[in-house]
Design goal:
This protein is mainly α. The protein has seven helices and no strands. The model has no long low-confidence stretch (mean pLDDT 87).
Length: 150
């Protein structure tokens, strides 16, 4: 009989989690779409870099550039540009994934990142302006701030 009583006392119900506000889910989905866009850029750069030699895309591109600017050698430059776009896109891909997951988990850093991204998004008229404005309006509401414990 004592063990049954001890089991009842040691039972702790799971903590109640707050529901994720809809605007947070919307912002997280936008971050994941942005991450997918940068993944596409990485994929395209890899295709040009890897298969460009085999299908002569790389040489075709170099010939077109060299015709415009014959005094320069762009062989190294084109590889450097592709590497730059790939690494930059990888950094943005990771940033948007971390921000999106952080939003869904209610992390404070994700709230700050999203506010900064929304302010920057106001500059991209008209879609970025509308979505950035909506996110900014709703992210400063008490329910959303409470979700992030800010």
């Amino acid at each position: 009989m004592e063990t049954n009583k001890e089991n009842q006392e040691s039972f702790q119900p799971a903590p109640i989690q707050k529901p994720i506000p809809g605007i947070v889910i919307f912002a997280a989905i936008l971050n994941f779409f942005s991450a997918a866009f940068f993944m596409l850029i990485i994929f395209l750069c890899a295709i040009v870099f890897i298969f460009g030699q085999a299908f002569h895309w790389y040489q075709f591109l170099l010939d077109k550039i060299t015709m415009q600017y014959p005094a320069f050698n762009f062989q190294f430059g084109l590889s450097a540009v592709l590497l730059f776009f790939t690494l930059t896109s990888l950094a943005f891909l990771l940033f948007f994934i971390v921000t999106g997951v952080g939003l869904l988990r209610g992390s404070k850093f994700a709230w700050y990142f999203e506010v900064v991204l929304s302010i920057l998004g106001l500059l991209s008229f008209p879609i970025g302006t509308i979505s950035g404005l909506l996110i900014l309006i709703y992210f400063f509401r008490p329910t959303v701030r409470g979700f992030f414990r800010i």
